[in-house]
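User: Okay, second chain of the day. Same drill as before: sequence in, structure tokens out.
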Amino acid sequence: MEGVHNPRFARVIQAQYKKVTSAIGNSIKVVMCPQNVSTWYVLLKDITGLKSEFQDGEYILSISIPENYPLNMPTITFLSENGVYKIGQSICMDAHRTTDITQLIMIIISNLISWESLPSSPEITNTTIEHKRQLAKLSRQQNERLTQHSLLL
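Assistant: Same drill. Structure tokens below.
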């Protein structure tokens, strides 16, 4: 596997990727980076939100899996503006100590939808519902620019 030097780690990544891709529905698409299989890109779509603030939005995030996974958590970063998580800022998942990447993705979606109850932290941004709706409308255009430059989603 490209980008991975440890055979055990390669097997773990392959098993997690197979599990994630078989467990998710049509609203989530996961792609392994061809240059580095420990980096995955996730496209979230068809997420409405509690007040329709994410309706029609599409959001890309990256998951970077460390060589010592599952001892250390993957780094999860949004690449698309969504009005909840800051772009490029690692999302703290320490409270959710799970080794299941499928669960981590589901937790991120749940947190995105229930953003009003998230505690204040460096990776959280506070925008209005209307601003989140505007970002949702612009997200596809923003993602097209991202995919043209680096992703295969």
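The chain has a mean pLDDT of 86.

User: Thanks, on to the next one.
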